[in-house]
Every structure is written in structure tokens, then in C-alpha cells.
Amino acid sequence: MSTSERTATHPTPFVLGEHVRAAVAHCVTTLAGAPAAQWRAAAGDLEWTCWETLEHLADDLLTYALRFGLARPMDAPRVPLRISTDRPEGPANVIFGDAAAGPEGLLTVVQACGGLLAMAVDSAPPTVLAPHVFGASDPEGFAAMGVVETLVHTYDIAEGLGRDGHPPEDLSHRALARLFPDVPRTGSASTTLLWATGRIATPDRPRRSDWRWYGAPRGNG
Question: For position 9, what pLDDT does the model report?
């Protein structure tokens, strides 16, 4: 089913593999070219460095994709890869970038992992479910999760690098519509998404200290 056919059937816009790729392209465009030394700075308000946060993003995209490599994803709570950290306060990942390749190399890793997720969600049967800590979700839900992870962590890293990482409007709108039905839309979609994920306060809403998304398939939320 094409994007236009899905949109005609459902007033809420779908999130597909192409939108995962668009989010990753936004990430690469926003972050490319920053000097390697800057990547040791904290990413926004996170305890992780910019480098660690980008590794975490790659890890999210890869592990979301791997769920749909299984014939019956719900039979396995997770794909049991070894998880490790480079330092006690750093993220726990299954994937790490090669430091010798520098930030541009790590951005290549993110592109590859995002591409795997895009292919996985587009090729999986649309009704198949895979486990997630916030509840089982379908391929579209995991595509939306990949978009959110990419947009908000790009924002975090851009803050650490002194760049503008504000998310694109269309991708923010799609992510909000699919995963945040509890969040009233005020102002732009990008500002609402950043508020919904605890990144910013708005004039009428204090910053969230606790948040989650809702990945249940359409009609089951």
C-alpha cells in the first residue's frame, strides 16, 4: 500500500521506512562536520557525551530492526546479544563505533542501522507484533519509535555541539500522531514533540520529568 493510499484510508499519517530514512538524513545533515573534540561534550542535559548518545541511537535503530528478523518476534522478549558499556555512566549498548573512524564514521553506522530498520519495517507483515518495554507494537510503531529516537537524540547532540537540532515539522507530526495520543498539540509539531519527550518547557507547560510513548497498533490504543 502506498503512502497516499494509506493516508486516504487513515486520517492519521502513517510512519514508514522512508520516514526513518528521512529522520536519519536530518541527523547526518545536522551533525556532520563537527570537530572530533566537540563530541566529548555532554549531549544536552544527558549524562552521556555526544559520541555516546550517537552510539546509543545507532543501537536503538539496530535492535528495533533485529526484532523483525525473527519469524515470530513475540516468542523472544529480546534478541539476546551481549550488552556492555565503555564506562559506568555511559549507555549500555550492543553496538559501538570505531573511534579511529571518527564522528563521520559513527554517522555512517547510524545511517546503516537506520537503513536496516527502514527495510525491516517495510518488509514485515503490517500486523506482526514485536515486544517493547512500553508494550507490543507493530512495524509502523517501531518505525515511529525510530523516528522519535533519531529526532530527539539529534536534538540532544546538536545542543552539545552548539548547533540547531530542531526536528522537522512533518516527521514530528507523524511521530506525535502515532505515539503520543495523550499529548495536546500546541504550537509547532516539533516544539510539541520536544516537550512530549521531556526536552523543553513551553510557555504554558512546565518541562516533563517523566514521559512515555504508546506504541499499540492503530485501533488498539
Answer: 41
Q: Give the Cα separation of 135 and 183 in Å (integer).
A: 18
Q: Could you tell me the three cell numbers for 2?
A: 502506498
Amino acid at position 110, single letter: V
E-only strand ranges, 89-136: none
Tell me which residues of the chain have a pLDDT lower than 70. 1-12, 221
Q: Do residues 115 and 142 touch, judged by C-beta distance below 8 A?
A: no
CB-CB contact of 137 with 217 (8 Å): yes
pLDDT for residue 221: 54
CB 126 within 8 A of CB 139: yes
Confidence at residue 195, expressed as pLDDT on a 0 to 100 scale: 97
Beta bridge partners of 205: 202
Question: Looking at this protein, which amino acid is placed at residue 179?
Answer: L
Give the whole-angstrom CA distance, residue 203 versus residue 87. 37
Q: Residue 202's beta-bridge partner residues?
A: 205
List the grid coordinates of 55.
552510539
Other C-beta atoms within 10 Å of 219: how many? Answer: 6
The answer to whether 83 touches 137, Cβ cutoff 8 Å, is: no
189, three cell numbers? 509539531
The span from the CA of 61 to the CA of 115, in Å, is: 9
Report pLDDT for 13: 81
Residue with cell 512530549: 196
**Whole-number Å distance between alpha carbons of 105 and 93:** 17
